[in-house]
Amino acid sequence: MAGKGEKLIAENRRARHDYHLLDRFEAGVQLTGTEVKSLRDGRVTLGQAYADLRNGEVWLIGAHIDEYAQGNVANHEPERDRKLLLHRREIESLIGQVQQKGLTLVPTRMYFKNGRVKLELAVGRGKEQRDKRRDIAKRDAQRDIERALRRRSLIRSSNSSSSPSSSSQCWPMCLKPRRLASASDGSFSGLIEAMKRWMPCSREAQSIRARTTSVA
What is the model's pLDDT at position 211? Predict the structure, then answer.
């Protein structure tokens, strides 16, 4: 989420899927004029990017910044390596974590902050395949729950003048996704248990539970 004075340029959604993200650092990026102009149009891809440590410096590798459409012969190379600007103590911390713990430096998002280009760099630990499957199942379950709640809300609105049906007992009054989230402890198993308590007998709940129980 962009903070005060920030304007998001690009986000690396793949990073959350492939890594457990730990410490995060804000780095400046050494750029050319045409690169900055291209970034103002959002012409960057971070999906294949990572950061590398070279002789006590941190470099951004694999980030693709499109050539500037109105550029001339001095236009930049789209996938060139770019130096990241960090304080010495931050670089030493990154070196220690990567060398001792076998972690990876992952760019998570690029943004403008007070007119300057910044990169959020995270220390990441690669996820195992079962972790990725669990994350996908949790995301799908949350999406299905919210869809079912919205559908139920529409039904309640259209039938507000009629007497409640017996199935209405399966749904708390004015239930919304944030109530379900607050009822859980934030974990995948907590989400499933909250779903069981709040939606014990709806057809949508039975379908969601059947798909998620095997993963939890």
Answer: 60
Residues whose CB is less than 8 angstroms from the CB of residue 49 and which lie 6 or more positions away in sequence, other chains included: 12, 60, 61, 62, 63, 64, 107
**Residue 8: its H or E element:** strand 6-11
pTM (global) more than 0.70: no
Task: Please give the torsion angle defined by the CA atoms of residues 196, 200, 204 and 205, in that order, rounded to the nearest 10 degrees.
Answer: 10
C-alpha–C-alpha distance, residues 145 and 204, integer Å: 8
Calculate ∠ Cα 207-138-98, nearest 5°.
160
CA distance 117 to 107: 13
Please determine, looking at this structure, whether the domain spanning 6-126 carries the CATH number 2.40.280.10.
yes
10-residue averages of pLDDT along the chain (216 residues): 78 84 93 94 92 93 91 87 96 88 89 94 78 60 74 72 50 47 55 58 58 56
DSSP state, 216?
-
Q: With contact defined as beta carbons under 8 Å apart, do 169 and 119 qualify? A: no
Sorted by where each begins, the domain ranges of the chain are: 6-126, 129-212
**Exposed e or buried b for every residue in 66-95, given b needs 16+ CB within 10 A?**
bebeebeeebbeeeeebebbbeeebbeebe
Give CA–CA dist 187/141, Å, rounded: 12
Could you tell me if 88 and 36 are in contact, meaning their C-beta atoms sit under 8 angstroms apart?
A: no
